[in-house]
Amino acid sequence: MSSFPIIRHATTADLPAILALIGRAVPLMRASGNYQWAPDYPNEQVFRQDIARQHLWVAELAGAVAAVAALTHNDQDPEYAQANWDPTEPALVTHRLAVDPATQGHGLATALLKQAEILAAEQGLKSLRVDTNSENLATQQLFPKLGYRFAGEINLAIRPGLRFFCYEKRLK
């Protein structure tokens, strides 16, 4: 397997591979106590919207979709104003970041987050934001390693009973 991922916009032709990836990742997340995603979310409709808006990116390894992330602008629920950042400042926000369990350890999440930095810089944005479930230990280690600072904990009305940790990275 090539160790150099190709990062590109997702297309509708990628949907079966993306949905299969999510289908493999969600049960493992839930088995480890991370209930950030439900068995029905994220789903095809959400990914179709991401693709139509040109927000969905994939990382390919050896010609196969191996990771996915939606890179959006300030697409955050009102509860995100509770985080320790300026909610009025435009930011590039990472959502629905997932790596196929079979390809973990190849730096794919890092490659997609680096793509977020490139997009933010191209668009003149100075802030990158992301959140993760309080039970997702892998991302809680990854984000600070990539220069993100912990920006607080929030609760989301759409996911009652869960706690989310917010992270922000400032670009120079």
UniProtKB/TrEMBL annotation:
<feature type="domain" description="N-acetyltransferase">
    <location>
        <begin position="5"/>
        <end position="172"/>
    </location>
</feature>
<protein>
    <submittedName>
        <fullName>GNAT family N-acetyltransferase</fullName>
    </submittedName>
</protein>
<dbReference type="GO" id="GO:0016747">
    <property type="term" value="F:acyltransferase activity, transferring groups other than amino-acyl groups"/>
</dbReference>
<keyword id="KW-0012">Acyltransferase</keyword>
<keyword id="KW-0808">Transferase</keyword>
<dbReference type="Pfam" id="PF00583">
    <property type="entry name" value="Acetyltransf_1"/>
</dbReference>
<dbReference type="InterPro" id="IPR050832">
    <property type="entry name" value="Bact_Acetyltransf"/>
</dbReference>
<dbReference type="InterPro" id="IPR000182">
    <property type="entry name" value="GNAT_dom"/>
</dbReference>
<dbReference type="InterPro" id="IPR016181">
    <property type="entry name" value="Acyl_CoA_acyltransferase"/>
</dbReference>
